[in-house]
Amino acid sequence: MRVSIVAIGKAKSLSPDLHAYQARAGRYWALDVVEVRQARGKAAAVVMRAEAAAIRARLRPGFVRVAVTRGGDRFSSPELARWLRRLAEGPAPGVHFLIGGAFGLDGELRDACDFRLSLSSLTLPHDLARLLLLEQLYRAGTILGNQPYHKGPR
User: Fold this and answer.
1) What are phi and psi of 105, to 5 degrees?
2) Cα(46)–Cα(31) distance, rounded to whole angstroms?
3) What's the farthest any 2 CA atoms get from each other in the chain?
4) How far apart are CA 82 and CA 10, in angstroms?
5) Where would I find the beta strands (DSSP E) of 21-88?
6) How many helices (H) and strands (E) does the chain have?
7) Which residues fall within 8 angstroms of residue 121, CB to CB, at 6 or more apart?
8) What is the CB-side half-sphere exposure of residue 6 using CA atoms within 13 A?
9) Cβ(137)–Cβ(31) under 8 Å?
């Protein structure tokens, strides 16, 4: 199954860690990370609409679309691994995880997604959200492969 992270902005401060976890997660998933240019402006609604249009232009047909948002459903790491396994066994060719910019994801784009995933109830910078997601994708791969990285219950 293809796993795609479509994120607003270039990763700067966490770049070495992002690349490390992207390489690790890439052992388990056909993974790509798409960086979409951050829109400029003072009005949040205008910025989010422009970013949503740029994100939509990068989405592949048939992929499950997941909005990464603090208001989404929460999974434990093993639950996320099982959810990804079910997706991989299903008809969709892949999954897009969508990470918004400084103002979050546009409401229309978020509502058009098939699923909403929360990484935390805290507000996270988009670089940190991307790092957490990549680490969890790596962890999910190790859980599904019965490898020793995950120390908690499976």
Assistant:
1) -90, 145
2) 30
3) 48
4) 30
5) 30-36, 64-73
6) 5, 5
7) 70
8) 25
9) yes
Give the type of residue at 10: K
Place of tokens 């997660």: 25
State if pTM tops 0.90: yes
Q: Give the C-alpha separation, 71 to 115, whole Å.
A: 11
Residues of the chain with pLDDT under 50: none
Phi-psi region of 33 (alpha: psi -120 to 50; beta: other; left: phi over 0): beta
Question: What integer pLDDT is reported at residue 38 of this predicted model?
Answer: 94
Beta-strand relationship, 30-36 and 64-73: unpaired
Instruction: Give the distance, in angstroms, between the CA of residue 113 and the centroid of all CA atoms in the same chain.
Output: 12
Kindly report, residue by residue over 131-154, the tens digit of the pLDDT.
999 999 999 999 999 999 988 887
Length of the chain in terms of residues written: 154
Predicted confidence at residue 126, as pLDDT, reads 87
